[in-house]
Amino acid sequence: MSHDRPGDGRDDEDRARGRGRPLGTRRADREAEVGEPVVRGDPAVTGERAERAARFDPDDDESLAEAAETVRRFASEAVAGDDNVVMLRGAAACAALVRGHGSYKAAAEAAGDGVQVSFIRKWARVHDLPESVRRHVARGHIAPTAAKHIARVAGDARFDLAWAVLDGGLTVREVRRAASAINDGTAPEAALRAEGVAPGTLSVDLPLDVYRRLRDRASLENREPGDVIADSLDAARKD
């Protein structure tokens, strides 16, 4: 079994307990309880499978045992394949083991059967992604392998990478490179531009009457339509 890299142990254990996050990054982390099937249990996302969504309670020994078994099967890749919902369930089980046992290393030991610390770490961090990103993973819009790299970064960079997949067609390989660049100190916008993505660019369809009003207002105010939309969203957020 592999171990945490030097210098990682304290950070990983703090993250497992919910401590040590950089200030101002709460929105880019999971807000619901660990193990709760918030996305997997939503019929609007997973249909009839929502009724069977597993909940893993890190404070319950029986639930932790179920999580350990789920992780063992998940790590074998025998039940995962291309099923995004199953992969999110595996991620939830990894996160529950980390929270319940207090560290990535202890979680891997609880899973047994040669489950690697790095495997637990990667998927537990996917479970820690914000709900809006996880929903796109469940819908199949973001590949779980891309989500693993998105989860490597912190703060708003998580959103920047996720939305670049949706709006810029960023591939898994490009997400990996951008995540590595961001973790090496490159600004998210610069990292995305290096991959050929224009951050903040979004194509939308509007009702014709709304489109007319938007174009009219932007012209009268000598502004770009995107600036008008941005101001409207900011105003709505503050209300």
UniProtKB/TrEMBL annotation:
- Please name the InterPro entries in this protein's record: DUF7119
* Chain spans, region Disordered: 1-63
Domain annotation DUF7119: ranges: 57-197
UniProt lists compositionally biased (Basic and acidic residues) regions at: 1-17, 48-57
Q: Which Pfam families match?
A: DUF7119
The residues forming a coiled coil are: none
- According to UniProt, the name of this protein is DUF7119 domain-containing protein
Q: Which organism is it from?
A: Halobaculum roseum
Q: What is the lineage of its organism?
A: Archaea, Methanobacteriati, Methanobacteriota, Stenosarchaea group, Halobacteria
